[in-house]
Amino acid sequence: MMKMLSDAGLEAVIGLEIHAQMLTETKIFCGCSTAFGAEPNTQTCPVCIGMPGVLPVLNRRVVEFAVKTGLAMNCRITPYSRFARKNYFYPDLPKGYQISQYELPICEKGHLDIHINGESRRIGITRIHMEEDAGKNIHQKDGSYVDLNRTGVPLLEIVTEPDIRTPQEAALFMKKLRAILRYLGVCDGNMEQGSLRCDANVSLRPAGSTGLGTKTEIKNINSFRFVEKALEYEIKRQVKVLRDGGDIIQETRLWDSETGTTNSMRSKEEAHDYRYFPEPDLVPLQIEEDWIKQIRETLPELPDQKMKRYQEEFGLPEYDCEILTEERPVAEWFERAVKAGGSPKAVSNWMMTDILRLMNETGTEITELRITPEMLASLIGLIEKGTISGKIAKMVFNDMYTTGKDPETIVQEKGLVQISDAGELEGTIQEILDAHPDEVGRLKAGDKKLIGFFVGQVMKATKGKANPKMVNEIIRKKIS
Amino acid sequence: MPGGSSGGSAAAVASDQCLGAIGSDTGGSIRQPAAFCGVVGLKPTYGRVSRYGLVAFASSLDQIGPITKTVEDAALLLNIIGGHDPLDSTSADIDLPDFTASLSEGIGEIRIGVPDEYFIEGLDPEVESAVRTAIKLLEKEGASVKPISLPHTGYAVSTYYILATSEASSNLARYDGVKYGFRAEAGDLMEMYLRTRAQGFGPEVKRRIMLGTYALSAGYYDAYYKKAQQVRTLIKQDFEDAFSEVDVIVTPTTPTPAFRVGEKISDPLQMYLNDIFTISANLAGTCAISIPCGFSSSGLPIGFQIIGRPFDEETVLRLAGTYERETDWHMRRPEL
Question: The CATH number of B7-151+233-331 is which of 3.30.230.10, 3.40.50.150, 3.40.50.300, 3.90.1300.10?
Answer without folding.
Answer: 3.90.1300.10
